[in-house]
Write a structure and sequence with these properties.
By secondary structure, the chain is an alpha/beta fold. The chain has 14 helices and 12 strands. The protein binds nicotinamide-adenine-dinucleotide (NAD).
Length: 415
């Protein structure tokens, strides 16, 4: 995520009036979290100003065009624009003219895998001149535990009298519009009035609300993501153990889960990647003084899966004489988001180990990618890295070496 402090006083506008007031301003409102929230709140009747830093995106969003894939969002975006309940722009003064400011910038981890608090604080600082007394300021991104308390003290020391709240986003990309209206919202604040206003904001989406303290809300969000990261790692480790012993994990998975409800939620192996899970496991590890062995082990397993696949291929074939095709480059299926996708790590390893690597993705148009058909025809080895639905019916010619880690083609995976 690109974090750029706001340019104070900048007012590139796309049609908003200088006096119009809003129910909600969303800072970071053009992104994967901010945009669906802005659209959903506007669709449900709030007047919303989505504030960001990219003039090109402001223009295309104002014309009703989605910058990324999000099921059902574009229709609602156009509906909200048509009803004049949603505006996109770069004018920070709109924060002052809003009852609620939602901030969608979180805590990344640095190259040492330590949390970086500075971007969020710097961003908050750049908007200080625009917050107004009594305003509800909602932190929405995943943060390092204790961040909300820290910022609460920091704002008080500066005499900024806002109601600070932390209400974590829990959607899965691609399902945001549906999930914003169905998933219970976890809300936390420091006063009864703050909690009441958070409840009012999120109940307007039609969903239930669960109230906790800020530290509980921060941990609830991190624990949720890290729980998923560790169970994905468990499936990946099981896959490697089975494969190392000549067994097909998918046969085992079927045997384990068939009419056995206690394991009905057991995940299958595959790349566990994207901008959240790895980062959040490392945040939790840092929070626990780096004594989160399970989290670190999960990271080693998940991040090691591309290396494992290439190692196994190398043990069986002379990769230096083979062309390898990596099919699917986004971080998860049916998405156009490539942030922190392990497909790119796989490509990097293969660029070193194989004769040639070809990459393709139905949702991405990159200059060095090739069409699906060419990848299938020219590759000796085909690795289905991201199982987009468009690949399900693909016919792979006989004689190709196929690595279907997701078992999308139903033939299992033994390499
Ligand atoms: N993507 C998800 O599915 C998801 C789910 C839950 C939580 N989160 C958390 O939400 C946070 C944001 O993730 P995202 O996927 O929306 O990122 P994103 O990069 O898609 O969106 C962030 C937006 O903030 C904007 N921005 C940066 N600096 C700004 C500034 N000074 N003023 C205004 N706007 C600014 C960026 O231009 C961008 O549009 C992350 O911390 C992540 O942990 C993400």
């Amino acid at each position: 995520m690109k974090l750029i402090p706001a340019a104070p006083g900048r007012a590139d506008t796309f049609g908003e009036s200088r006096t119009k007031t809003y129910d909600v301003a969303i800072i970071g409102g053009f992104g994967h979290v901010g945009l669906p929230l802005a659209v959903s709140l506007a669709f449900r009747g709030k007047s919303v100003y989505a504030l960001d830093i990219d003039p090109v995106r402001a223009e295309s969003l104002s014309a009703g065009l989605m910058p990324f894939k999000e099921d059902g969002c574009e229709a609602r975006l156009r509906d909200a624009l048509g009803a004049e309940r949603l505006e996109f722009g770069l004018d920070p003064h709109c924060v002052t003219r809003s009852d609620v400011a939602v901030i969608v910038v979180g805590t990344p981890v640095d190259r040492h895998l330590n949390p970086e608090f500075e971007p969020l604080q710097a961003m908050l600082e750049s908007y200080l001149p625009y917050f107004k007394k009594g305003q509800l300021v909602v932190l929405r991104s995943t943060v390092y535990p204790g961040t909300t308390d820290h910022l609460h003290r920091w704002l008080e020391e500066r005499g900024v009298e806002v109601e600070l709240a932390f209400c974590p986003e829990r959607i899965a990309e691609g399902k945001a519009i549906e999930e914003l209206e169905t998933l219970p919202q976890i809300v936390s604040a420091y006063t009864d009035e703050g909690r009441r206003r958070c409840r009012e904001l999120f109940e307007s989406l039609g969903c239930e609300v669960v109230e906790v303290t800020p530290i509980e809300a921060e941990l609830a969000k991190l624990f949720s993501n890290v729980w998923r990261y560790t169970i994905f790692a468990t499936a990946n480790q099981f896959f490697m153990i089975a494969n190392d012993h000549g067994a097909d994990f998918y046969d085992i998975h079927h045997a384990m889960t068939y009419k056995y409800p206690r394991l009905s939620g057991m995940p299958r192996p595959g790349f566990a990647a994207g901008p959240c899970l790895f980062k959040d496991a490392m945040q939790l590890a840092a929070f626990n003084n780096n004594r989160f062995y399970l989290g670190h082990a999960a990271m080693l397993v998940n991040e090691g899966l591309p290396n494992y696949l290439v190692d196994r291929l190398k043990a069986r074939f002379d990769l230096t004489k083979l062309t390898v095709g990596v099919l699917g480059m986004t971080f998860k299926a049916d998405s156009d988001d490539k942030r922190d996708s392990l497909s790119y790590k796989l490509r990097k390893i293969l660029a070193f180990e194989s004769r040639r690597v070809l990459c393709s993705d139905v949702y991405l148009d990159e200059p060095d990618f090739v069409p699906t058909a060419r990848l299938v025809n020219e590759s000796d080895v085909i690795i289905l890295a991201t199982p987009h639905r468009e690949y399900r019916e693909l016919k792979i010619p006989a004689g190709k070496i196929v690595v279907d880690i997701w078992n999308a083609w139903g033939g299992g995976c033994r390499i």
